[in-house]
Every structure is written in structure tokens, then in C-alpha cells.
Amino acid sequence: MRPTTPRVLDAPAGSATPLDLDEEGTSRRSAGSRSGAGGSSRSGGARRGSSSRRSSSAKKGGMRARSSVGFKLLVSLAVAIVLSGGIIALYFSPAFPITNVTVAGNSKLQSGYVIKLADVAEGSTFFRVDVESIRARLLTEPWIQDVSVERGFPDTVVLRITEQPIAAVVSIVPGTANDSIQQWVIAMDGTWIAMVEDDVVGHARINAEELVRLTKIRDISAAVRPVPGMIETDEGISNALALLRGFSPEMRGMVSVIAAPDAVRTNLTLSNNVGVAFGAAEDIEAKERAIATLLAEHEGTITFINVRVADHATYRATE
């Protein structure tokens, strides 16, 4: 019987190299298979060599990057040191001397007086002017509520002040029979500003018409003795100022006189000569509404209003 020739099956992709079978069925690897096996071995070695080279290159690149960052840090540090040295040298140098001092925000204080009080030290420069000391000196003036000291490059200092808002003129009871009554200007926060001498109040000038329009506080305790720059604690004056702060602008404009012997007996005289028993600075809005209502209902005839108890207001009127 004739021997059957064996079939060679196609190997699936990726499988081992197929075997060549001779007629006796003996297997042998083809030259191509040997070559392939050898090639595979050499390829594996090449890949390992390539991987080693990449690892070495990465290490060298990382070292170069770290070296670059370190160099940049050193350069930045050197620049900072140079700049700091330059700033320090500029600070202590006579460059940019202050030659101009200006005043802003003042309406009553004279600019010349403010500049003199500021007393900017001779030799001050834009960088070395002592703004805190200047500000402290200016705040000793009772007329000045607040101030900012600003530099203007290259040679200017600007004194930007806020003057005290005036509340009233207070009549001070004389200490002896030979003394005359003094008129003192007081600020809204109770700070004594200065005594009125014609239109001059301390180091400021006030228009005579403005002085006339200001509310007058009188009939105060004989123990009150004003000190410029100090805040008054007398209860009668404190209550009167609390009323002025709490009134609407319209009501404040109507009040000509506040008699303030104490907080309980505080009375008002309005610009239409109507007297008001107001009392303590409580329920101010309700009391103000009661006054406005009675004035409107009895216009031209009302002479006196009592609002010490806001919801039980009483009045007197002519027939």
C-alpha cells in the first residue's frame, strides 16, 4: 500500500515556526526558522540595550533640569540682593528731597498753619519722610478729626485732612462774677475745639453767618470747664449732642437753642420760637414726628410742646 503523504497545517499567526517534514516524517527546522530564532534573540538583546540607554538618558536629562532650576534660583537670589542693596542705598541717599507740602480737605483751617504744624523735617526725602510722626502732630489739633499723609513723587507731601464737624456753640458759665460768659465750639462727638473770638475759633476762621446758624447749648452745669481736644462727659451736654446726632436734617435745622442742665430737663427752642420739653435722647424719631404733627395742626398758634413721653405729647396754643 502506498504511504500517505502527511499534510502540513498552516500555523496560526503568532505561533511557533512550522516544522518541515520529510517523507519519513522526520521533523527538521528550516534555515529560515533558525535564522528567525537567532534574529529573535538578537532583537531581545537590542531592546534591552535600548532600554538601558533610554534610562541613562532620562537620568542625565533630570540632572540637567535640576541643574537649570538651581541656576535660575541662584540668579534670582543674586538679582534680589542687588535690588535690595540698591533700594537701601536709595533710601539713605539725599535723592528726591521734599520741596513741596500741600494741604487738601480744609475749609476752616488755614493751609499755612497746617503746614507749620506738620513740621516736615529738613532733609526729608520721598523715601525717608516720617509720615507717622507728621500725622501724630496734626492730630493734636482739635479741629482735625482725621488726616492722611501721602507722598507725591518725586518731591511732594500731601496733607489730606478731615475737619471736625461742628455741632454747636456752648455758653460756658463764668467762674467768678467778674468773668464774662465764654462761647466755645464743640464737635458732634463731644470734642472741645476752641473758644470763639469774633470769627476766629482757635486756629481757624468761621464765617459769622455760620456761627449765627449754629445751635446754641446753654444753661449747662457751672462745673463744665472746656479743654481743647478733650471730649466732654457732662450728661446735659452729652444728651444735647445725642439729640443733634439723632435728629433729621430738617429738625436739626429748626433747633435754635438747647437748654441742657441735665439729661432729663433738656428743652429746645425752635426757630419759630416754639418751646419744646424734650427730655432724654430716647425715642427721638417718635418725638420728632409728634412735634411735626402738632406744628402742622396748630400752625401759627402753638407756643409750647411737651414730648418727654412720645406717645402722650401735649401742647399749648393761643386762641
Please give a structural write-up.
- The protein is of the alpha+beta class and 319 residues long.
- The chain folds into 3 domains: 29-92; 100-163, Ubiquitin-like (UB roll); 166-317, Rossmann fold (3-Layer(aba) Sandwich).
- The chain has 7 helices and 16 strands.
- The longest helix has 62 residues, at 31-92.
- The termini are far apart.
* Radius of gyration (Å): 48 Å
Portion in strands: 15-25%
How many individual β-strands? 16
Q: How are the strands ordered across the major sheet?
A: 10-9-8-7-6-11-12-13-14-15-16
Here the CATH topology of the largest domain equals: Rossmann fold
Strand-helix topology:
Blueprint: E1 20-21, E2 27-28, H1 31-92, E3 100-104, H2 111-118, H3 131-138, E4 144-152, E5 156-163, E6 166-172, E7 182-187, E8 192-197, E9 200-201, E10 204-205, H4 208-213, E11 215-218, H5 235-246, H6 249-254, E12 255-259, E13 267-270, E14 275-277, H7 284-297, E15 302-306, E16 314-317
Parallel strand pairs: 3-5, 6-11, 11-12, 14-15
Antiparallel strand pairs: 1-2, 4-5, 6-7, 7-8, 8-9, 9-10, 12-13, 13-14, 15-16
